[in-house]
Design a protein that fits this description.
Strand order of the largest sheet: 4-1-3-2-5
Radius of gyration: 30 Å
Largest sheet: 5 strands, mixed
Number of strands: 14
CATH architecture of the largest domain: 2-Layer Sandwich
CATH class of the largest domain: Alpha Beta
Distance between the termini: 62 Å
CATH topology of the largest domain: Beta Polymerase, domain 2
Helix content: 25-40%
Strand content: 5-15%
Length: 615
């Protein structure tokens, strides 16, 4: 982990990459993708994390009454603390109790140290006893609080350095443009905003400051969808805690710390750490609620809800391999501007088609599996994203890392000088809609029972039935080839995925002809082989309103599809006075029995309705 924290690529990125998303208001205007080209600028993820951690070290997150508190907060912080570089408004949508915050970024980390040293605790003057913990999460008190020395004039900045990227409510009347424009704007509407990303690093900073009291080299690093470029603003916050990332490398001091011995076994020690840290989070840290420790999973984690930011957090301590997987995904997403919007629409489509479930563990698709499906498609069909093997060939000693679980990483991290070589579609004007249709075309014909996807070589391989990790869908893990990233997916889910791809490809063909809305792709047509339950009045179980007789003749309600008609019953004959075989009148005894059955199906709460017995 030494090289991880000290890693610095000589990356070339301009200040344009730091422009806040406040300029984007997807509810007010639609962004056009026609003529959009690759910018030729890429910043490695490890550089981004290092920069963001440094920002968080100079920042505090202050709860305020609303946006109108900006002037008062800026004046106070500038006069009482130090020079303020910027105020970033953050809106917590999950709770009204902690909804409005400003992330105050100072010019110097000394200012944050001063706040932690001089800040007060609520309830100290009212008789209640708060837990006197110091944290970068605070709230701005109103009148009656200790005022700063107003003789010191704050630096005058016009206008105030206030940034607001809270998205407005989408305007349904705003034209969506082309289908490619709609795909791009769908991604933009869900993309992690500047303030949301800063808040996530503040959550990491809170845990890190807590641990630094005993472990001065402790580091909490985010990984997963929150930093790899494929996440959404409402996604979870995945973090890894390393108590000693340097692991004595590069230290040549003759002064050695006294310390206790670890228990036998790394996994047992990790469980013991997680057990104690979970108690610290629950008892001491503000905002950390519903703390759960999952100690006997393959990767022991601590799950909790951060009420102040609204994030669901997962904290692990095992290995940094997840961080380097995030680096690889970040490279793929940064190779071309079309990759991330394409992944976003595929994830949205998969959820609408019930291919992704909210329960864990699952036999269906996960977001990571969907990302890998998109990557393999782009590698094999378009050459838009590089293979892992190509990245390894271009890597240098600066790109070599070793994880705690034995995983070795040696792929190129800074692809900026090689973008045109690694992306064969770099200058292509291929649209997002064409890529989307190609995705459905590729997997609607893919033989999952015979072939496996290999993102390392970028090729389709013969399926190895003797592989211990083989399943209905085989995708090699790009960092650990012995593992299958889709091992959990079962045969039924794969069949459903292939069928949905076939249906969606046909819909794309119709959409290209008719210029339809993107929402058409997310709808699900009725399955003609499924029996639709008729309404009560259609089978004589209730009095219909005026005009209901028109509904009974509506195609698709009582007239079932041809296949359904062969296996269905004539429901109207159940309570009619004629035989289901034709117009043969029933005997009086049979008619009376039908009347009694009809009454039982309506009035009895215990008796199963007659018309349901035949399904």
């Amino acid at each position: 982990m030494l090289s991880l924290l000290s890693y610095r690529c000589v990356s070339r990125y301009s200040s344009k990459s730091l422009v806040l998303l406040s300029s984007l208001k997807p509810g007010l205007r639609s962004i056009k993708t026609e003529g959009k080209v690759n910018s030729g600028e890429y910043e490695p993820l490890l550089d981004i994390i290092a920069r963001r951690r440094e920002e968080a070290g100079r920042s505090v997150m202050v709860q305020v009454k609303g946006k109108q508190s900006a002037q008062d907060l800026y004046t106070y912080c500038s006069t009482a603390i130090g020079h303020v570089k910027g105020l970033h408004f953050y809106k917590n949508q999950s709770t009204k109790a902690f909804s409005n915050f400003y992330i105050v970024e100072f010019e110097d980390e000394i200012c944050v140290a001063k706040i932690l040293r001089t800040g007060s605790h609520s309830g100290a003057d009212s008789g209640t006893q708060p837990v006197p913990v110091t944290s970068p999460f605070l709230w701005f008190s109103g009148a009656g609080a200790v005022q700063p020395d107003l003789t010191v004039s704050p630096p005058v900045i016009q206008p105030l350095p206030v940034f607001n990227d809270v998205r407005d409510t989408p305007d349904e009347k705003e034209p969506g443009g082309t289908i490619s424009d709609q795909i791009y704007n769908l991604w933009k509407s869900q993309e992690i905003t500047e303030s949301n990303l800063r808040a996530r690093f503040m959550v990491c900073r809170q845990v890190e400051l807590t641990m630094k009291g005993m472990f001065s080299h402790a580091a909490v690093l985010p990984f997963g969808s929150s930093v790899n470029g494929f996440g959404q603003s409402l996604g979870d916050q995945d973090m890894i805690l390393s108590l000693d990332p340097l692991q004595d490398k590069g230290r040549e001091s003759r002064l050695v710390f006294h310390s206790k011995s670890c228990v036998s076994g790394d996994r047992a020690q990790t469980r013991r750490y997680c057990d104690q840290i979970s108690s610290i989070l629950q008892i001491f840290l503000p905002g950390c609620q519903d703390v759960q420790k999952i100690l006997f999973a393959r990767v022991p984690i601590i799950k909790y809800r951060h009420e102040l930011t609204g994030f669901d957090c997962d904290l692990s301590m095992t290995s940094s391999s997840g961080l380097y997987m995030s680096c690889l995904l970040h490279i793929w997403g940064g190779a071309d501007w079309r990759v991330r919007p394409l992944v976003s629409v595929i994830k949205h489509w998969a959820k609408s088609q019930k291919l992704v479930k909210n329960i864990r563990p699952t036999n269906y698709f996960t977001n990571f599996t969907l990302v890998m499906l998109v990557v393999c498609y782009l590698q094999q069909v378009h050459g838009m994203v590089p293979t892992v093997q190509k990245l390894i060939e271009l890597g240098s000693s600066q790109d070599q890392f070793s994880c705690e679980d034995g995983v070795s990483v040696n792929f190129l991290h800074n692809i900026n000088p090689h973008l045109t070589r690694l992306n064969q579609c770099y200058h292509s004007d291929m649209t997002l809609f064409e890529l989307l249709r190609g995705f459905f075309e590729f997997y609607s014909h893919f033989e999952f029972n015979k072939h496996a996807l290999n993102p390392i070589s970028g090729e389709t391989e013969e399926k190895n039935k003797l592989w211990p990790k083989t399943s209905a869908l085989d995708i090699l893990n790009p960092l650990e080839p012995d593992l299958n990233v889709s091992y959990n997916v079962n045969l039924a889910a794969v069949k459903m995925f292939k069928d949905r791809c076939t249906e969606s490809r046909k819909r794309c063909d119709k959409m290209s002809e008719q210029g339809d809305n993107l929402a058409t792709l997310f709808g699900k047509e009725k399955d003609p082989a499924v029996l639709a339950m008729p309404k009560m009045f259609e089978v004589g179980l209730g009095k219909g309103r005026a005009g209901d007789n028109k509904l009974s003749n509506t195609p698709g309600r009582t007239n079932l599809k041809s296949k359904s008609r062969e296996i269905s019953l004539n429901l109207d004959s159940i309570f009619s006075e004629t035989d289901s075989r034709g117009d043969i009148p029933l005997s009086p005894a049979t008619q009376e029995q039908k009347r009694l059955d009809k009454e039982k199906s309506i009035r009895s709460t215990k008796h199963v309705p007659v018309f349901k017995q035949h399904f």
